[in-house]
């Protein structure tokens, strides 16, 4: 009987309960944003691949961030767009759990990648003479592998804890994708252990990394203020401010979603923040790095010049 309760055939994603006309409008708008996300992050990946001057640890981690953003958006947005166009907004049990796993895995990995990027900037500015030794390609590869592995393993823990729960109805998820907190609300058993693990994981993957980032940038700020050259100071501030913008957007919304006290409309708050995670943040990241980074703009000009010269 427990097996029959646990294995539900499908869930209903209620998503945005608006009029059909507004849903069509949102579908067009979100499709445009999703296209910009794919193009922006794709351009970043292409520039890093084509321009040898960007073959540095900083842009190695930035390429991983772009891959995470593309994967993150592609995990949630296509299903959301399909649901905005169709009345039947169902998702089978297995794809729902897989969507939850990928959502958590990509989110955790992005947290760790942002920490690696802050450490890279710390070494580059505070220990420039030792930079090539400390941030060797072997070290960068190990750091990226650890980020992906830890993100995936932590997400797997969440999924295993979800699969031990019985789901016996209702089957309506008040969200546009299988977000973990919304899925847990449908369980027919005590989810205290799941909630404790989610909070503990938030401390480990959000508060801990954010503290490391802030410590790194405190040292970076002191090192920048000691730079005599005004041009050198501006260049360092430009590179670091881009990263700080991304860190603020990502960690701020994540902490509000998973650690801040819930508002009177928690479902609406979760959907808005998840939409920011899934669509706006991945779209803004390449814009922030390209508009505020002279090296990326220079690489784009060099690639375009090569294409015109052929």
Descriptive terms for the model:
single chain, mainly alpha, 3-stranded mixed sheet, 11 helices, 3 strands, 3% strand, disordered N terminus
Structure, explained:
The protein is mainly α. 77% of the residues lie in helices and 3% in strands. The protein has helices at 2-6, 20-50, 57-85, 93-126, 131-134, 137-163, 180-184, 192-225, 230-258, 266-291, 294-309; strands at residues 10-13, 90-92, 172-173. The protein has a 3-stranded mixed sheet with strand order 2-1-3. Helix 3 (57-85) runs antiparallel to helix 4 and helix 8 runs antiparallel to helix 9. The longest helix has 34 residues, at 93-126.
Q: Can you count the helices?
A: 11
**Overall pLDDT, averaged?**
83
Order of helices and strands: HEHHEHHHEHHHHH
Any idea what the shape is? globular
Query: What is the helix fraction of residues, given as a range?
Result: over 70%
